[in-house]
Amino acid sequence: xxxxxxxxxxxxxxxxAQRHMFEYGTTEEMMAAVSEKNxxxxxxxxxxQFYEKTFSREKLRQLPWVAPPLRLGDCSSMTDGxxxxxxxxxxxxxxxxxxxxxxxxxxxxxxxxxxxxxxSLTEWTGxxxxxxxxxxxxxxTIHDVxxxxxxxxxxxxxxxxxEALGLCAAGQGGPxxxxxxxxxxxxxxxxxxxxxxxxxxxxxxxxxxQAVEVFQQIAxxxxxxxxxxxxxxxxxxxxxxSANVHSxxxxxxxxAA
Length: 257
Known about the structure:
Blueprint: H1 9-24, H2 28-42, H3 57-60, E1 65-67, E2 70-71, E3 102-110, H4 125-138, E4 147-149, H5 155-165, H6 173-178, E5 189-190, H7 195-199, H8 206-218, E6 233-240, E7 245-252
Parallel strand pairs: 4-5, 4-6
Antiparallel strand pairs: 1-2, 3-7, 6-7
Helix pairs in contact: 2-5
């Protein structure tokens, strides 16, 4: 009955944002910091919908409401797009590139069927468990990850994802981005291609586009303005529905030992 009651994507994530604000004091400025960062990265990504366009936090906070407290700049734009990767067996990789990127671990988890069954709006157990499984299979920890591609369909989703992944404590996702910890020079770079907010969200192509960014970052084929310093390990997160399904993959420059 979610859809019949108006629980499409913007209202659902608006409820996540409202609850996060109530529980932890998260602010519109913190959400705008996510959007500003991702649009700044997209500014130097020719494949991004918002290529060569910049948005200040002040401008973002003046945009129209979509579903309060989410404004237009808090929402990714559904768009046309395509992405592709070449996936080969380990022994064939050298035939295609001198800089292969290896899939080290995967995890997927669904913890509720629909919004009515969500145990918490601000604690994404599915993402936490999917990430734990992916890191376990890669024999790595979250502290080994140099950068992450997170499914920022809305600014609040990136903030909640920081917390579910263990990049910061519960309720600290807002201050974490506001302090620059997810920018180049911070603790971990998040969405250096511009994310869904800056690149647009072509739905089925989004996850593969994230994988393409991982390859280009590790091969150091992106502009210096968004190049992650010495990248070795990347985490990619995708979600579906009302954040009830989460998938995580771990990539690295080196093959598993």
